């Protein structure tokens, strides 16, 4: 009997995802039926989920074996009590490569002072005052979060000669990087960093991880890059830190409210670059293969990869 898989993502993208998933499960040798909607939820074995999906109550899915997230961030479903089966989060090579490109691009952009040239392109040859002062090996990047994405970004920055450090919930050892854990560890790490990249999941413990106290601990003039989640930063404290010079610049991809409202002060702040949650996207061709591999594993008794720890929230 074929495995029944329901796509519960953005309905406008079903025409892309359903064929991609169909092709991927066939490539993995799984006999499966892929559906974009169903009248018989009790017959569904796997739900492929994104926050844009319309199903939020999973109680009718009595035959469900797992929920497979198309997103790396799972804060929208991790506390869903109608889901009584394992949830897996997305780990996908294209997603990781996209995030590496975003993070490296913005660290280099700030490191090289490229914004100064874009903002002042007015016929004045400002060579002396815009020469880069440092090379990468004199600058330290602190990665908050050393999971699939944070570790890959940290390694890419180390390959460009940046000094790299990282912070995670549990202690980690990554060659060439100084690593920290615990609240005290973060306080110490912040004082030594020129760039702070937030690559953390949104959980009860990570909300407002950068607040007024933590901004005051940072090396004066540090730059913030946040492709993690908006609520990781206290917005008012960030604005204050930018205005009093503690923080030199913030590049923000994620926000407490998305889309960021047109009247929000971030849009017009001269030290903030807003990008509209585009740091890294789940690409159908590759991430369908990650989903299909997980279904193959589950069906053959090998166990799911990237299972969410629902107590930890990620
Ligand atoms: P992972 O789950 O692989 O890694 C999460 C990391 O955060 C781990 O190192 C974990 O520590 C650490 N962490 C979690 N809680 C804490 C805590 N309380 N204190 C310190 N460290 C903590 O996630 P990914 O790397 O795959 O993704 C990270 C996040 O990036 C996602 O949750 C999502 O929010 C965001 N994202 C944003 C995208 C965008 O386009 N803007 C695209 C994709 C993801 P430990 O290693 O000890 O478990």
Walkthrough of the structure:
With 314 residues, this protein is an alpha/beta fold. The chain has helices at 14-27, 93-111, 114-119, 127-130, 148-159, 182-190, 212-217, 235-243, 265-268, 284-299; strands at 3-8, 32-35, 46-49, 66-69, 87-88, 140-144, 163-168, 177-181, 195-198, 222-226, 247-252, 272-274. The chain has a seven-stranded parallel beta sheet. It has a five-stranded parallel beta sheet with strand order 2-1-3-4-5, with helices on one face. Helix 5 links the parallel strand 6 and strand 7 (163-168). The chain is elongated. The relative contact order is 0.15. NADPH dihydro-nicotinamide-adenine-dinucleotide phosphate is lined by residues 72-73, 95, 145-150, 167-170, 199-203, 205-206, 227-229, 253-254, 277, 279-280, 314.
Helix proportion of residues, in percent?
A: 25-40%
Rg over CA atoms, rounded to whole Å, is: 21 Å
Mean pLDDT: 97
What order do the strands of the largest sheet run in, or round the barrel if closed? Answer: 8-7-6-9-10-11-12
Strand tally, please? 12
Which overall shape is indicated by the principal axes computed on the Cα atoms? elongated
**Uncertain ranges:** none
Largest sheet: 7 strands, parallel
Q: Number of helical segments?
A: 10
* Beta-strand content bin: 15-25%
Bound molecules: NADPH dihydro-nicotinamide-adenine-dinucleotide phosphate
Order of helices and strands: EHEEEEHHHEHEEHEHEHEHEH
Structural class by secondary-structure content = alpha/beta
Give the distance, in angstroms, between the N- and C-terminal Cα atoms. 33 Å
């Amino acid at each position: 009997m074929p495995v029944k898989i329901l796509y519960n993502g953005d309905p406008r993208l079903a025409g892309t995802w359903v064929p991609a998933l169909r092709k991927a499960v066939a490539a993995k040798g799984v006999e499966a039926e892929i559906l974009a909607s169903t009248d018989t939820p009790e017959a569904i074995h796997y739900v492929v989920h994104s926050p844009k999906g319309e199903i939020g109550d999973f109680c009718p899915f009595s035959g469900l074996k797992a929920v497979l997230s198309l997103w790396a961030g799972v804060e929208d479903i991790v506390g869903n009590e109608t889901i009584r089966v394992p949830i897996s989060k997305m780990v996908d090579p294209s997603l990781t490569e996209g995030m590496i490109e975003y993070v490296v691009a913005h660290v280099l952009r700030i490191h090289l002072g490229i914004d100064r040239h874009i903002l002042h392109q007015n016929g004045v040859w400002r060579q002396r005052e815009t020469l880069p002062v440092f090379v990468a090996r004199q600058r330290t990047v602190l990665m908050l979060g050393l999971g699939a994405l944070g570790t890959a970004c940290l390694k890419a920055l180390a390959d460009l000669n940046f000094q790299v450090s990282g912070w995670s919930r549990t202690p980690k050892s990554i060659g060439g990087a100084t690593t920290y854990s615990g609240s005290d560890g973060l306080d110490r790490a912040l004082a030594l960093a020129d760039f702070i990249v937030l690559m953390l999941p949104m959980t009860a413990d990570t909300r407002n991880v950068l607040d007024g106290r933590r901004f005051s601990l940072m090396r004066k003039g540090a730059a913030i890059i946040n492709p993690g989640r908006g609520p990781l930063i206290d917005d008012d404290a960030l604005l204050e830190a930018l205005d009093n010079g503690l923080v030199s610049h913030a590049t923000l991809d994620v926000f407490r409210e998305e889309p960021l409202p047109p009247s929000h002060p971030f849009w017009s702040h001269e030290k903030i670059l807003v990008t509209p949650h585009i740091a890294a996207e789940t690409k159908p061709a590759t991430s369908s293969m990650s989903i299909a591999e997980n279904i193959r594993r589950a069906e053959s008794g090998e166990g799911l990869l990237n299972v969410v720890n629902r107590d930890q929230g990620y």
